[in-house]
Design brief:
Helix content is about 55%, strand content about 10%. The protein has about 350 residues and is an alpha/beta fold. It has a domain of about 230 residues: P-loop containing nucleotide triphosphate hydrolases (Rossmann fold, 3-Layer(aba) Sandwich). The chain has a seven-stranded parallel β-sheet, sandwiched between helices. Strand 2, helix 2 and strand 3 form a beta-alpha-beta unit.
């Protein structure tokens, strides 16, 4: 059984059900009387409404707003309101704060750090951004710190290379734009924020490695998804974070027939059946094949991660015919998560 900690980070590739499972975990924690926060990236509208209207008064749902989080950081570390205004209105900043690769991952960590430091919640469930590689999330603090130390950044900040230098004028004339000039002004305006950004990113990294933080890996029984899950698992292991369990979502129900039942089933197929009856038997047989194939895929995954020596649970969640979008459905999901 999964045992959650103060901070639970749900990871996995896109489309495996991370958001729904994160919501179920939050409902479970809140039902135990804990003041709980579900920090999600892009919840389904009906699911978000159900959580917001829940009778669990100690459950808070928050959707990550990358731009808003970035803006708050700028305002916090800018030396003056004028400096903050200049940065927030820079067109390069507006691109970086919403579109640049890695921004969403870093801002998710930044929000996590902010909420952790506030001590406003007993437990926080983070639904991570959809990413094929967990490294893009876990290494976001390191990438930011590295960027702030890059020589090219320092090159732009040299006093001799101000926007009025001959080099900038020459390149602007060649390109027909003032891109480098704007880039230099943007980086110069950010200079006062560097130390605050870097220190904060390293503190966010510390939270990921805290004994109070737990990671859950979500996958599903498809070979391509399992292969990505293996990469996730190896990266988590290499980064020495605490893995509390692996959840295999949407597993087909198993209808294993005994030898005698299989014999009767094969005999039944030879009977003079109506077309509808033949269709029902055919569907059942196809489902049997799907279930068997998924069992083989799950065994393949276990072997790839050497599950025999693992110290964490591997939980299979059955496939539900209907989408889960309310508290009742989330509670049903929890029956499988915590049985």
């Amino acid at each position: 059984m999964i045992e959650l900690k103060k901070m639970t980070v749900v990871v996995g590739t896109g489309g495996v059900g991370k958001t729904t499972l994160s919501s179920a975990l939050a409902v479970k924690e809140a039902s135990l009387g804990k003041k709980t926060l579900a920090l999600t990236i892009d919840p389904a509208k009906r699911l978000k409404q159900a959580l917001s209207k829940s009778s669990l008064k100690n459950l808070t749902v928050m959707t990550l707003d990358t731009r808003q989080t970035f803006d708050a950081l700028v305002q916090k570390y800018s030396p003056s309101e004028e400096a903050a205004h200049r940065i927030l209105n820079n067109r390069l900043y507006q691109y970086v704060s919403t579109m640049m690769a890695g921004t969403q991952e870093y801002m998710a960590l930044e929000k996590l750090y902010e909420l952790h430091e506030s001590n406003a919640y007993d437990t926080i469930i983070l639904d991570t951004p959809p990413s094929k590689h967990i490294l893009s999330f876990l290494q976001a603090p390191d990438r930011l710190a590295h960027f702030l130390d890059e020589n090219i950044l320092k090159w732009f900040l040299k006093p001799t290379l101000s926007g009025s230098s001959l080099i900038f004028k020459f390149i602007d004339r060649l390109t027909g734009s003032k891109l480098l000039h704007e880039l230099s002004e943007f980086l110069l305006s950010l200079e006062s924020l560097y130390k605050g950004f870097k220190d904060r990113s390293l503190k966010a990294k510390e939270i990921l490695h805290s004994p109070n933080t737990l990671f859950l890996l979500v996958t599903n029984p498809e070979r391509s998804v399992f292969d990505q899950g293996v990469v996730f698992y190896k990266n988590l292991h290499a980064l020495h974070v605490s893995l509390g369990g692996i959840i295999i979502n949407r597993v087909a129900h198993s209808f294993q027939l005994s030898p005698q039942e299989q014999k009767e089933f094969n005999k039944l197929k030879l009977e003079n059946l109506s077309q509808d009856e033949k269709t029902v038997l055919d569907i059942f047989e196809q489902y049997q094949m799907l279930s068997q194939r998924e069992k083989e895929e799950i065994q393949y995954f276990k072997e790839k991660i050497n599950f025999k020596s693992a110290r964490f649970p591997l939980i299979e969640i059955p496939f539900f015919e209907e989408d889960i979008y309310d508290i009742k459905g989330l509670n049903l999901l929890n029956l499988h998560l915590f049985k």
